[in-house]
């Protein structure tokens, strides 16, 4: 369905989604107001400028191998999990963000929903329900979309559909061209909503949800979903209308706190992501960051057990007893590297390249290291678990 056809549907208040109606109105639906070449050119230039501006200012996109400004937790092939830049509405509040700059989740593929399932499992284990929301107020603004994930106690969660139904029915225009409430439980989200129209959608599970086509952005605030949840839980407006921003320097601590619960459900545990400017066969030589303890040390042990060489990067490798026991001149090379110091990373990369001219595979067990270490080598991988 293209944009012009979507506009025809919007303008037709009596539109019916069946073949008989569309066959009867085929000529009207197919009609298209002509545009002069000058108008087409102006529109193309305007759209291009709008796209470039949206990409340059986007806080969710990677820019020249620099990570997004969002507090990134885990990274997959098509999306990543991040914490909101503003104060959370409830504990565990996070976001699912597609890597590609898209204006709605209708443009995304099935891989994104793998993370949704993992998040639901995590919050279920904590005896919490989980509400997933997406708000696309203006499609033409090309704002990078995201699904907000807000966990709430099960006792309140059971009443959430009723609260959102009431909120949606009382929102936007009093008289609308579309159904106020679209139940996406039967056909599913992607078969119920229209890609080129602004909308709000809330999921109460993988199969149950409500959608709403936004007809007047001025009467439908961006914080609508948060306001409904705040009403359910008696949360003050300071956390949903204009919440305060977190300090950037607090992101590491916030990430660590969230990972305590998230780690066992991390959807990247099932695979390794391979990317870079040049793919090649495995060389049998690996780099492991954060190799002195935890998952990093586990990676080192596993790689050595499989007969491969390892460059084990750590801030103080000489003071890491677990790593020291593994280091020898044949299989494990200890490299001093401070992940927070660009000069230290560059020095480590030069040392590794000198000792492994045939190339290496980089295992990064911390998604935050992607921009620092991954861009230094031709081939890199991200691994959250063995």
TrEMBL record:
InterPro entries associated with the record: Cwf19-like, Cwf19-like_C_dom-1, Cwf19-like_C_dom-2, HIT-like_sf, NAD(P)-bd_dom_sf, SDR_fam
GO biological process: mRNA splicing, via spliceosome
Domain Cwf19-like C-terminal residue range list: 47-165
Top-level taxonomic group: Eukaryota
One Pfam family named in its UniProt record: CwfJ_C_2
Cellular component terms per the entry's GO annotation: post-mRNA release spliceosomal complex
Domain Cwf19-like protein C-terminal span(s) in chain numbering: 174-268
Positions in coiled-coil regions: none
Signal peptide boundaries: none
Similarity-based family: Belongs to the CWF19 family.
Name by which UniProt lists this protein: CWF19-like protein 2
Organism: Choanephora cucurbitarum
Encoding gene, per UniProt annotation: CWF19L2
